[in-house]
C-alpha cells in the first residue's frame, strides 16, 4: 500500500483541467469571430486606440510584473509600481500572480524535462496550449514543495490579489474595459464585447508565449543564422532566450528573445529613473566572459558562475540603466 502511494507521487501523468480547456477554446475561437465582426461592422478609432492600450497594459503586467519582478526579482519596485503592475496583470486574465509564478519557477527549475509544465521538448502546441490546460502531475506537485515561495507569501500585494482575484478579474478583465467604450465614446455594446474578446485572446497568447517563445525564436545547437539573413517574416532567431534560462535575474532579457532594447526593458529603466524601481540586476560583457572561463576552468555550472560573478560585479555602475549603450 505504502509502495503504491509512493509510486503515485512519482507519477508524471497530468489530468486535464477542463476549465482552462474551455477558456482556451472559447477565447481563441470567439476571437476569430470577433475579428470578422469588427471588420464587417466597423469600430471607432477611440476603440482601436483604447484596445491597443489595454493589450499593452495587460502584457506589461505579465512581462514587467509577473515575470521580471515577481518570478525572477530582476529589480525591486515601489509599492505604487507594484499595485499598478498587479492591476495590469489582473487585466491580462491569465490567473493570479501567485499561481503564474509558481508554475514559471517550476518551468525554470526543471526546464525541458517531464517535470516542466510547459516542456518545450514536446513541441509548440504542448508548450503553448496543452501545458497550461493540464493540472500538475503528482510528481510536479511534489517538486513544487521544494521551491521557495515565501517571497510571494510575504508580499501583501500578491496575496491581496490572490484573495480577491475573482472580483478583481471580473472588474479589470470584463466589466471596466468593456463598459468604457460604451460609456465614454458611445461604442455599441456588440462592438465593445467583440473588441474585449479579441483583446483577451491577444494578451492570453502573448502571456503563454513567455514560456513557449523558446521554441519559435531560440537557436538550436548547431543552427546558424548569419546577421544579414536571420529574418523570416518577423522571426529573429537568437540565443537570448537560452540566456534567460542561464541568467533569469537579468532585467534586460526580453521574453521574446531580444536584449537591452525592448519596450519592457525601457519601461523598467524609465521607472528606475523616476525612482519607482531600483536595484536593477544585470551583468557586463567582461564579467560574462570571466564567468564562462570560470565555468570551463573549474568545471562548474554556467548559471552558478554567472550569478556568483554578477553579485561581485564592480564593472556595473549603480546608474547603468541611464546609459546602457555606453555601458556595454
Ligand atoms: Zn523566466
Automatic annotation (TrEMBL):
The lineage of its organism: Eukaryota, Metazoa, Ecdysozoa, Arthropoda, Hexapoda. One of its GO terms (molecular function) is stearoyl-CoA 9-desaturase activity. Its cofactor is Fe(2+). CDD domains: Delta9-FADS-like (cd03505). GO terms for cellular component: endoplasmic reticulum membrane. The gene is LOC115878462. GO terms for biological process: unsaturated fatty acid biosynthetic process. It comes from Sitophilus oryzae (Rice weevil). The histidine box domains are involved in binding the catalytic metal ions. This is Acyl-CoA Delta(11) desaturase.
Amino acid at each position: 500500500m505504502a509502495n503504491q502511494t509512493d509510486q503515485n507521487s512519482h507519477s508524471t501523468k497530468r489530468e486535464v483541467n477542463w476549465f482552462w480547456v474551455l477558456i482556451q477554446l472559447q477565447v481563441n475561437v470567439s476571437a476569430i469571430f470577433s475579428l470578422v465582426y469588427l471588420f464587417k461592422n466597423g469600430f471607432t478609432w477611440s476603440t482601436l486606440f483604447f484596445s491597443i492600450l489595454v493589450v499593452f497594459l495587460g502584457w506589461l503586467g505579465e512581462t514587467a510584473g509577473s515575470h521580471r519582478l515577481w518570478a525572477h526579482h530582476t529589480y525591486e519596485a515601489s509599492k505604487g509600481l507594484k499595485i499598478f503592475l498587479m492591476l495590469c496583470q489582473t487585466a491580462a486574465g491569465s490567473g493570479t500572480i501567485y499561481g503564474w509564478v509558481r508554475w514559471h519557477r517550476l518551468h525554470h527549475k526543471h526546464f525541458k524535462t517531464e517535470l516542466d509544465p510547459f516542456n518545450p521538448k514536446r513541441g509548440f502546441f504542448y508548450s503553448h496550449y496543452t501545458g497550461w490546460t493540464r493540472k500538475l502531475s503528482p510528481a510536479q506537485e511534489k517538486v513544487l514543495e521544494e521551491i521557495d515561495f515565501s517571497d510571494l507569501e510575504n508580499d501583501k500585494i500578491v496575496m491581496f490579489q490572490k484573495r480577491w482575484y475573482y472580483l478583481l478579474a471580473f472588474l479589470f478583465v470584463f466589466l471596466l474595459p468593456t463598459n468604457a467604450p460604451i460609456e465614454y465614446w458611445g461604442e455599441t455594446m456588440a462592438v465593445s464585447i467583440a473588441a474585449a474578446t479579441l483583446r483577451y485572446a491577444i494578451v492570453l497568447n502573448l502571456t503563454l508565449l513567455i514560456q513557449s517563445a523558446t521554441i519559435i525564436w531560440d537557436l538550436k545547437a548547431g543552427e546558424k543564422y548569419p546577421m544579414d539573413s536571420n529574418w523570416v517574416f518577423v522571426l529573429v532567431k537568437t540565443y537570448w532566450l537560452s540566456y534567460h534560462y542561464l541568467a533569469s535575474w537579468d532585467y534586460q532579457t526580453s521574453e521574446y528573445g531580444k536584449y537591452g532594447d525592448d519596450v519592457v526593458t525601457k519601461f523598467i529603466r524609465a521607472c528606475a529613473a523616476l525612482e519607482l524601481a531600483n536595484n536593477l540586476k544585470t551583468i557586463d560583457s567582461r564579467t560574462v566572459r570571466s564567468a564562462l572561463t570560470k565555468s570551463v576552468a573549474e568545471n562548474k555550472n554556467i548559471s552558478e558562475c554567472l550569478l556568483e560573478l554578477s553579485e561581485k560585479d564592480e564593472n556595473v555602475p549603480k546608474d547603468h540603466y541611464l546609459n546602457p549603450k555606453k555601458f556595454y
